[in-house]
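TEACHING EXERCISE
Course module: macromolecular assemblies
Task: Read the component lines below, then compare them to the predicted structure of the full complex.
Student: A.B.
Group: 4
Components provided:
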Amino acid sequence: MDSSRRKFLKIAGISAVAGIGAPSALNMLMKSDVQASSAGGAHGAQPDAHGAQGGHGAAPAGKRYGMVIDAVKFHETPGLAQKCIDACHSYYNVPDFGNKKDEIKWLWQEPFMNAFPDESHYKKDDGLLSMKFMVLCNHCDNPPCVRACPTKATFKSAEGIVMMDFHRCIGCRFCMAACPYGARSFNWRDPRGTMDGVPFIKKVNPEFPTRMRGVVEKCSFCALRVTKGQMPLCVEATGDSKAMVFGDLNDPNSEVSQVLKARFTIQRKPSLGTMPSVFYII
Amino acid sequence: MLEKSLKGNLGYWAWVLFLLGIIGVGAICYVVQFNYGLGATGMSRDVTWGVYISQFTFLVGVAAGGLMLVLPYYLHHYKDFGRITILGEFMAIAAVAMCLLFIMADLGQPMRALNVVFHPTPNSMLFYDMIVLNGYLLLNLICGWVILHSEYKGIKYPGWVKPFIYISIPWAVSIHTVTAFLYCGLPGRHFWLTAILAPRFLASAFAAGPCLLMVIALIMKQTTQFNVGQKAQDKLVTIIGYAALLNFFFLGCEIFVAYYSDIPGHKHTLDYLFFGLTDHATGETYNNLVPFMRASVIMGFTGIGLLFVSRAKQSDALLAVSCILIFTSFWIDKGLGLVLGGFVPNGLEQITEYVPTPIEIGVTAGIWATGFLIITVLYKIAISVKLENEKTA
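Instructor-supplied answer key:
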């Protein structure tokens, strides 16, 4: 009696462990397969790209979207930056909590010293110091946030866009610690809520889902619009000014590649080897 | 064997009730946080990890500290640790349980925690942390419980636990190494980006863990008939002394590299922690951790000094004081400074300070109380078994 009970418990225990472990083990094997094949496009040329670390490294194969921001044009056109930010934040239902602690932002402006802290600010010219720079997710070719995420809730698409799965994110905020650019925001409280009757999202845009509390979010390079052949909203908002140019960095004939070939640009913290896809004309 | 924890004097029950009270407060605070979101804490966009993750980091060390008792006893057959080794294993169980609770408390979407298992991601250090922490909990549960149960029955522990004991030794090193890798592999966080982080973690762990154990052992010596023995006590003092000195040696290495190289990024956080950091844009100075960090260094060195005095004088009171000083010193260093400091300044070289909210402190106290309750119950069982055995023997 006793021994059979013990036997039963043993078998039950072992099968429970197997039952819990097997699917995830299988999952892991299958997932790594998928990752390996999808990586072919954007990641295929990683070794070469790594070789160019520190400079304007670019993967030569597949699509890799990137952007050139002309800070001088933004400086010369007052109100243009705010127009871009509004276009982005209103479409993507980015809430405004009215305080710095809970703040969520996808696209915003920073002074030179904050956007480019590695560039010594000793004896910089007044013009540069008075300028503001548009900052957003750099959609790095070698993103530290993707490396850190324990659930693949943040991942790099085949076109090189770093994306977020709001439904998978567990809110551990490891990606926020990993991002050297402060590009990520966390929903510290319910963005769908209100304060004193005023909703945090002034006017909900039904075309893009609002988030729930406890997940991370950031700029998506308007990935869904880009797949439809449209420009990101901020780029569209700059109109014909060419203050922002967006396109495929791997296509030598794209407008963005032409600009990069012709103009001197800088990146944010290139020495970290993250290979940002956002370039600045200063 | 569990029934041993149900028999105790008034003092025992008063202590258990006290802990349960704090746990209750913590649970209520957590419900508030769960309903409101993590905005109920002091964390912000710039300081994204607060006391939860820093307590977690410190407690991984306490858990790993159990190694300093297991290793001499099982690997070097140091017999004088016979009465204390089980306490090290049980302390590790309580510490890892607290670690897991702190991680859960820190998640924005705790209901999705199992996504780490459903979508395993081997490139994330958190994936390995999940494996090593749960593994270490399991190893200590197996080893501690089986060995004590054998003792309870008056027989030698079965041979099949031996491999688990041997595995648990390097495993203890792995939990704190992987926890250090969470931090030191992140580009752009200069304070954490140091190869010496894991060794530094281990040194402080090998001092803080045994310190806590020593204090508990001294309390039990006063309140129960359980005495770990003078020889074990002296050996533990040696271990704590060397580990604590090593910790400060490593800290000194960090300070040398930062200030001699004079690279701003390397100095910023140390400046912030020990002297205060001035924001050049606004001219404002931020320094809310400075008194804590300075106290940490003073307490650490005083503790080490007193430790050796206490040994020369064979004074338990002095020993308890020195252990409390070292434990508190390392708790501040790792349980506050290391994690919070890493976020100052942020990636844009802006300074945001962090102050925990009462809700956050309530949850933290609740989790600590849970850990102490686990220690209390397990130690009660362990010493009841040991004392009973000695009576019959």
